[in-house]
Amino acid sequence: MKGIEQQLLTIRQAIARAAQSCDRDPLDIQLLAVSKTRPAANIRTALACGQRDFGESYVGEALEKIEALAGEAICWHFIGPIQSNKSRLIAEHFDWVHSVDRLKVAQRLNQQRPHTAPPLNICLQVNISGEASKSGVAADQLEALAEQVSGLERLQLRGLMAIPRATADSAEQRRQFAQLRELLEQLSQQHQGLDTLSMGMSADMESAIAEGATWVRIGTGIFGPRITTADKQA
Ligand SMILES: *Cc1c(COP(=O)(O)O)cnc(C)c1O
Prior knowledge:
By secondary structure, the protein is α/β, with parallel strands linked by helices. The protein has helices at residues 4-21, 40-48, 59-68, 87-93, 103-112, 142-150, 170-188, 205-210, 220-223, 229-233; strands spanning 30-34, 53-56, 75-78, 96-100, 120-125, 155-161, 196-198, 215-218. The protein has an 8-stranded parallel sheet with strand order 7-6-5-4-3-2-1-8.
């Protein structure tokens, strides 16, 4: 495993190459470093290399790191499943939430967002593969959810997020990402200011960029293989 500094450089180059190969401006694609399961020290290393945006999936673990790194100019993104009883901590400590998929959670985030903070940036997570086990609003219920969320004053609806069915087939990757892009295009006819497609991870980043990703969410590509609980116990 190369160091985080080298990996970040490699990922930034890969983003630029993918952008150029589809005639997009590389500056339109932002890198979200997914730091879930990684220690604060890893985040410090990435920060020192100019990385500012970090994604977390577990509230408790994230808060420890947010506290440890208080005072640093970090933009924190919540990307994991949201339990209602954790919504206050998310509303108070994050700048973005990519994983809103139901009205109840959106309403809680809206009520709990501190008035001293700017509106919370929101992406609606869509279950584009339709797998029952997956989080995300169904595509046919997206428009109704977007309508309701866009009326919440302390939230700023920015766009859509998806985690498609994993496949090594790049044509299939692109088909799924294209679906999310088309959903955003449809919503944009009703709503202004939708500028965000949060899609693409380490294994399918190029396909996502070709279909219009504005945030790619990269964990292992920057920090190396995740250490799972099972590994830790072994
Ligand atoms: C873990 C995670 C990622 C990063 O995945 P990698 O394969 O490690 O790049 C991206 N998005 C979400 C929602 C995640 O949970």
